[in-house]
Amino acid sequence: MPKNKTHSGVKKRFKLTSSGKVKFARPNRGHFLTEKSQGRKRKLRRGAYIAGKNADNIKSLLGK
To answer: What is the number of domains present in the chain?
Structure first.
């Protein structure tokens, strides 16, 4: 039986925490930062967690 490969796009964008949650960085931090308010950019700095079926899908793509 062949090994399962990790999805290379997913492994760059998501991390699994030790408790099994899926963590990701918020989008919209790439460019045009002068047009965004300081508060908005501050909130985008924090990561977020994915819940439910989406988290299960990402875990399967990560091979976990």
So the answer is: 1
